[in-house]
Amino acid sequence: MDFGYTPEQETLRREVQQFIAENVTDDVLGELETAEEGGRGVHYRELIRKVAERNWIGISWPKEYGGQGGSRIEQYIVEEEFARVGVAVGGAGSGAPAILAAGTEEQKQEFIPGMMKGDIVFALGFTEPQAGADLAGLQCRAVRDGDEYVINGQKMYTSAAHYATHIYLMARTDPDAPRHRGISIFLVPMDTPGITVRPLWTIQSDPPAPLGTTYGMARTNETFFEDVRVPASMMLGEENAGWYVGAMGLNLDRVGASRYLISVRRDEDIVNWVKENDFGGHSPADDPAVRDKLAELWTEAQVCRLMTMRSMSLVERGGNFTYEGSAEKVWAPEHGVHTTETITQILGPYATLLSNSEEAIEEGLFAHNVMGAFQSGINHGSVQVMRDQMARRGLGMPRG
Questions:
Q1: How far apart are CA 303 and CA 263, in angstroms?
Q2: Which residues contact 4 (CB under 8 A, 6 or more apart)?
Q3: Which are the contacts of 335, defined by CB distance < 8 A and separation ≥ 6?
Q4: Quick count: other Cβ atoms within 10 Å of Cβ 285?
Q5: Please, is 165 exposed, middle or buried when counting C-beta atoms within 10 Å of its C-beta (0-12, 13-18, 19+)?
Q6: Could you write out the three-class secondary structure of 245-268?
Q7: 3-state per-residue secondary structure call for 327-390
Q8: Which of 171, 224, 159 is nearest to 196 (CA)?
Q9: How many CA atoms lie within 13 A of 245 on its CB side?
């Protein structure tokens, strides 16, 4: 199997790199560092408009909804180059894969073109105060009332809710059903009466994390729903089948450049730093132990890449994508933690200096990465839950 890129794909990469050099300006990057608007300022929106004009968003999505009907590899290349400069232009975390897989024709026509233009942005409404890693314990209720559902409850860590246009909401529609059943998903406009968003400021907010920090968001949110009325037509998939729609969507969302780079950017950053810097005339690159450990981590990072390529190939060929996303979600975040631990050993006390320190390395990037590293084992699904899914779906083992 050839894991390289074709000449046409490399041409696309160079074209994207040239576009980024000309259009990702200091004004755009400055907006991306602002917490209140999530970086979605006027310069960022103009950038997304230009990207959409080139039809680079949703390359692999069907042509009838505005995509190119191209390959996931091409979409991966575009997403990877933008992700390296801190700009999100792909579908990861957007809800788009689940809408394409389980949505009605009307939902696809309404949401997919708008998402590609940047006019529609989804927040993810899954986690609750008492239901995080154990998501099946969620209590947010949706009760049918004629042609509408009335939603009451609370969601936590809805990170995009303060600038999103919609929320991809998981709610319980049958409280008497077994825990993994009786759950449905709704596509809810954020301007619907009864929705309240309150900020939750993270450990990365003071001092602020530099752009490029893994999980360096200064703000997330808690979102409240009080008698929120949503048309029944905004249910994604069948009633009480939301757990399975959500699991499918999360699996598909885990495949792509942004998720891959979350876990390997630390490797690239420390290798580049070690090659270019020293402490008082002594370069860490001269230390055999440092070189051996970085080589080991770089090998693990290549495993992350190959797992991502395997998953994309499987999805593109229409294969049965079951446990592969869960396997990536175990290997990649744990690798990121290993890398962060190694970096702290290489840098010593400098690994603790945040962005407000005059002696901080790379504006405190490595220190802020330490604060975000362990979050990756919980975000988007706990690695322990993923191991259970691998055992049951991949190995066919019985439930304990």
A1: 11
A2: none
A3: 263, 264, 297, 300, 301, 303, 304
A4: 15
A5: middle
A6: HHHHHHHHHCCCHHHHHHHHHHHH
A7: HHHHHHHHHHHHHHHHHHHHHHHHHHCCCCCCCCHHHHHHHHHHHHHHHHHCCCCCHHHHHHHH
A8: 224
A9: 29
What's the burial of 279, exposed, middle or buried (CB within 10 Å: 0-12/13-18/19+)? exposed
| DSSP designation for 394 | I
d(CA 5, CA 10): 6
Give CA–CA dist 40/175, Å, rounded.
38
The per-residue DSSP string of 135-202 comes to GGG---EEEEETTEEEEEEEEE--TTTTT-SEEEEEEES-TTS-TTSSEEEEEEETTSTTEEEEEEE-
Matching residue, tokens 């490029």: 212
Instruction: Find out whether 181 and 237 touch, Cβ atoms under 8 Å.
Output: no
> What tokens does 260 get?
């891959």
Six-digit token string for 91:
């579908």
- 8 Å CB contact between 28 and 34: no
* Residue 332 vs residues 127, 172, 290, 293: alpha-carbon distances, Å: 22, 31, 21, 17
151-206 per-position pLDDT tens digit: 999 999 998 899 899 999 999 999 999 888 899 999 999 999 999 999 999 999 99
Q: What is the pLDDT of residues 22-80, one digit of tens each?
A: 999 999 888 887 755 555 778 888 998 899 888 888 888 888 988 888 888 888 899 89
**Cβ-contact 285, 274 below 8 angstroms:** yes
Characterize 320-337 residue by residue with b for buried, 16 or more Cβ atoms within 10 angstroms of its Cβ, and e for exposed: ebbbbbbbbbbbbbebbb
DSSP 398: P
Q: What angle in degrees, to the nearest 10, is found between the helix axes of 105-117 and 42-53?
A: 120
Q: What is the pLDDT of residues 199-219, one digit of tens each?
A: 999 999 999 999 888 888 889
What's the rounded Cα separation, in Å, for the pair 192 and 190? Answer: 5
Tokens of 306: 């190959």
Structure tokens at 60: 């692999």
pTM of the predicted structure, to 2 decimals: 0.88
Residues in the chain: 400
313 backbone dihedrals φ, ψ, rounded to 5°: -65, -40
Residue pair 399/392 in contact by the 8 Å Cβ criterion: yes
